[in-house]
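Before relying on records like the one below, remember that each one covers exactly one chain. Contacts with other chains, cofactors or solvent are not represented anywhere in the record.
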Amino acid sequence: MKIQWGKTLLSTVLAVGVAMSAQAGNMVVTGHDTDDHRADQWFDWAMTYLMTGNGTGYDTSSVETSGLNIAYLSDTGRTVSSTYFGGYNSSVTRVNLSSATWTDVFNPGAYDVIVVGTGRDFVSATGSATMNTQAAAFETYFNAGGNLLVNSEQGLGSSFYDFLPAFGATNNAGLPGCSSGVPCMGTATGGAAIGMNDTLVAEASITHTRFLNVDSAFTTVEQYQNNGGAGSGDAITIAFSGTIQCDPTDPAASCFIPPVTGVPEASSIALMGLGLFGLGFTRRKNKSA
């Protein structure tokens, strides 16, 4: 009985350790208003990246991305085109932020991806404020493996949605130097490595927000080029895999990314010690059996 108890303890510790080290979600934040411009192939790329960590070979029929449950958050009277969602249209549930039950999107296992609609066109300033009060819920959802796609804030008056981690400054002044026939956006090196290409950048088209001095924890997927002019190199779309942390005492503050120190957390050390104890206990009992 004691030998079995030791084995059970070890198995439990290992299972808990695996659960605690589970991969958090993936995130895409873009200055495009892709939902307003029917960028369905771009959306396909985003879903593939969110579910696999790499958008290369995006395909709605792939094992990783078929049968998704996707929530699209908005609260204005405008109706987003179904073509925006491409092959995922049947997987999307439109959720109105003015509904008292909109926070059901955070229920464990309810949705694989939460998409936030473009500000002003599909999310009002009231809707933005509503989401900001749920920063802790976004944090829990994301850190537990949920995925986020957030479209342009488009002039709501803040640097961006507060439930997002602080990733750098924003500029909502548009893209000077862009005109018909003049390429002013392109794939960044980091974006090319995860399947982004200039055809998808062009499909996403209009951009209202760009990001300056992006934190190195984020991958710049697309960037403003302006043929070498002012602002060249500013990020248009960024991606992130990891964890975020919000301040429960200040829901209006932007979340941040916990620093990576390379030192195991106290809980991990405790689990490791408990596991070694269980293993040693089992071995000792085996010898005495």
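The first helix runs from residue 2 to 20.
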